[in-house]
């Protein structure tokens, strides 16, 4: 018999009653160090007083009016985002997938109004994750997510991640844009080679293409810059943002230059809930904190310290951890054992982490994490490795005499 909630998730049998910063507390009082953070969402941790105050104050005034009318909080947030980034304009959504849908439509429409309607294909990368809509699963190209949903939406050409020659070979007369995550999150915390983003920017400029970035997971301070592409010294034409921008409240945004957005005129796109007053109040509150210079300084310092400590753990446990990868506080451990085993062992130690592709365990703490909490996380990772090593040592050797 089917459950009342559609059974599309393999949910862990844990129910949380409340959160405090980097910690979650179950209904029976157990405390877990949360290095999932809602999958890179809770950048200010759980129940941050500033966010609670912003949401409560707005909820007492106005929840929803629709985009038939002006929303002052959204106008302010758009102004702040454009001042802090490459962009000239913003479209607010409820999720990352919706922000990507807007970005895909915008890239195609740009070429259409520029006199090249045949240019409607977008180069994407193997291992990417852009969402669960029909367009975004086609963009990601993952067979597991595409199976059973009928004809794959056309218009996307996948190439190996980080392979510049493959990108060059894929560019043709129908190519409209290149879409990628500056750091692949779901794909296994994969960081492209140095200068790769700069080379893509140059290719787009050379061929009249748009560079579209998916910073849903890597953005809003996660890597130590406001957005990950800043490390490469380049700017995109269009960028999808979500997760951290709402600090836990569902919201996303598609940012673009005036030129890239020139086809998105009156009536070409819309959203009932996108940019509603509650989301805008929280988004502005998140920016109040994340845009402080000391906030990003803290992320960079914690990211560097965490990377150093994780490298030491890897050296001590080479049979469990094959590689430490990532940037800032978007980190991953590629495991020698099944990544799910390490996720479970960490949960047994009271630490919550998500898995990812390429047999990787992601480490995504709230960006307000302290050095003491990072040290405690490393202790738990060490203990989890020891648990796994003990189990490996106790396992019978295959082929041994019965």
Structure description:
This protein is of the alpha/beta class and 402 residues long. It has 12 helices and 15 strands. The protein has helices spanning 37-40, 49-59, 72-84, 96-113, 134-140, 143-146, 164-170, 196-207, 277-290, 293-316, 339-348, 371-394; strands spanning 16-20, 23-26, 31-34, 89-93, 121-125, 156-159, 175-180, 210-214, 238-241, 252-256, 321-327, 330-335, 351-352, 355-356, 360-363. The strands form 3 sheets. Strands 4-10-9-8-7-5-6 form a 7-stranded mixed sheet, sandwiched between helices. Strands 1-2-3-13 form a 4-stranded mixed sheet. A hairpin with a 2-residue loop joins strand 1 and strand 2 (23-26). The longest helix has 24 residues, at 293-316. The radius of gyration is 22 Å and the shape is globular.
List descriptors.
seven-stranded mixed beta sheet, globular, 37% helix, alpha/beta, 402 residues, four-stranded mixed beta sheet
Write the layout of secondary structure elements.
Layout: E1 16-20, E2 23-26, E3 31-34, H1 37-40, H2 49-59, H3 72-84, E4 89-93, H4 96-113, E5 121-125, H5 134-140, H6 143-146, E6 156-159, H7 164-170, E7 175-180, H8 196-207, E8 210-214, E9 238-241, E10 252-256, H9 277-290, H10 293-316, E11 321-327, E12 330-335, H11 339-348, E13 351-352, E14 355-356, E15 360-363, H12 371-394
């Amino acid at each position: 018999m089917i459950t009342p909630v559609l059974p599309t998730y393999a949910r862990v049998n844990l129910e949380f009653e409340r959160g405090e910063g980097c910690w979650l507390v179950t209904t029976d009082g157990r405390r877990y160090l949360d290095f999932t953070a809602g999958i890179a969402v809770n950048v200010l941790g759980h129940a941050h007083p500033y966010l609670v105050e912003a949401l409560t104050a707005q909820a007492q005034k106005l929840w929803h009016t629709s985009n038939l009318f002006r929303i002052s909080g959204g106008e302010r947030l758009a102004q702040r985002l454009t001042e802090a980034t490459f962009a000239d304009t913003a479209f607010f959504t409820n999720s990352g997938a919706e922000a990507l849908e807007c970005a895909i439509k915008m890239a195609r429409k740009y070429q259409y109004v520029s006199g090249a309607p045949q240019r409607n294909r977008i180069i994407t990368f193997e291992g990417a994750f852009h969402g669960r809509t029909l367009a975004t699963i086609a963009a990601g190209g993952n067979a597991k997510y595409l199976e059973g949903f009928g004809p794959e939406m056309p218009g996307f050409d996948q190439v190996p991640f980080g392979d510049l020659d493959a990108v060059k070979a894929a560019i043709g007369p129908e190519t409209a844009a290149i879409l990628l995550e500056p750091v692949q999150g779901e794909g296994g915390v994969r960081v492209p080679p140095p200068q790769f983003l700069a080379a893509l920017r140059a290719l787009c400029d050379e061929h009249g293409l748009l560079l579209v970035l998916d910073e849903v997971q890597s953005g809003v301070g996660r890597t130590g810059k406001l957005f990950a592409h800043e490390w490469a010294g380049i700017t995109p034409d269009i960028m999808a943002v979500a997760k951290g921008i709402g600090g836990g409240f569902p919201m996303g945004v598609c940012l673009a230059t005036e030129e890239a957005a020139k086809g998105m005129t009156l009536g070409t796109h819309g959203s009932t809930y996108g940019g509603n007053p509650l989301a805008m109040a929280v988004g502005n509150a998140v920016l109040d904190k994340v845009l402080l210079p000391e906030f990003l300084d803290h992320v960079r310092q914690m990211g560097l310290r965490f990377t150093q400590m994780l490298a030491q753990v890897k050296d001590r446990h080479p049979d469990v951890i094959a590689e430490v990868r990532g940037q800032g506080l978007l980190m991953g451990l590629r495991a020698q054992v099944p990544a799910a085993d390490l996720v479970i062992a960490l949960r047994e130690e009271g630490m919550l982490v998500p898995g990812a592709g390429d047999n990787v365990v992601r480490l995504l703490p709230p960006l307000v994490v302290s050095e003491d909490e990072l040290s405690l996380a490393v202790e738990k990772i060490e203990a989890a490795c020891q648990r796994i090593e003990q189990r490996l040592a106790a396992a019978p050797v295959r082929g041994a005499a019965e």
